[in-house]
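Progress narrative, Year 2. Work on Tryptophan-rich sensory protein from Lysinibacillus tabacifolii advanced from sequence curation to structure prediction during this period.
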Amino acid sequence: MPKFILMTITYIVSLILTFSSYFIKINGQSSLEISNRFPVMFAPINISYMIWIVIYILLAYWLVMNFKKTTIKQTVLFSNVCILQAISILFWHYELFIVFFICTVMLVLYLFFLYNTYSHSNNALSGRLPISLYFAWSTFLLMTNTSFTLTSYEWNGFGLSNPLWAVILLTIGVVIALHIRYHHFDIVYPSVFIWAFVGIAFHNHLDELLVTTAALFLCGVLVVGILFVKKKPAYQK
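Result:
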């Protein structure tokens, strides 16, 4: 019971701050108002963030179904993820971008550790699936938020153009997603990147044809990876 209470409290705090950041002005501005100030191409259209609704619904289901099943390790990791999610939002709204970036990196690492507490075959709604969804979206956001942070500090990109950097990040995203697909036998993780890349295509549309074309092409690569990558893990945890 104490484990469930701890996870529930941190979950609720994280949920409230996550959704309020999009609809309520914190420090005089919403989350999207801050991000829309920066000319970042590796960013999805605003509606893409609706995936948070699915993530938190599935996490709520995961919490209820694991009322007495979570280990101490899973409890600590999940609670830390929720706390980091909440405080990173505050750092973002107060434009403490470096601290925000550090928190986001830690959040993704904790999610990775939590993700690895499940076997490769446990893709049920009460098992790895909600964590995989959250992990994938947070990984994508880490890449996006890196772009926002560097742009806010007027990074010159080593002389490379913004569209080229966007394509590089898209390619890195595909490599990460296919790695998870191949080594963890996970179709949810790359599916989230498809959702994100479609959002990037709509965000840039015809204004940045290179980025839009690359995003849609790499969506196709991810679909092929989901359909035809069949390697099963060599061992079960």
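DSSP finds nine helices and no strands in the chain. Residues 1-229 form one domain.
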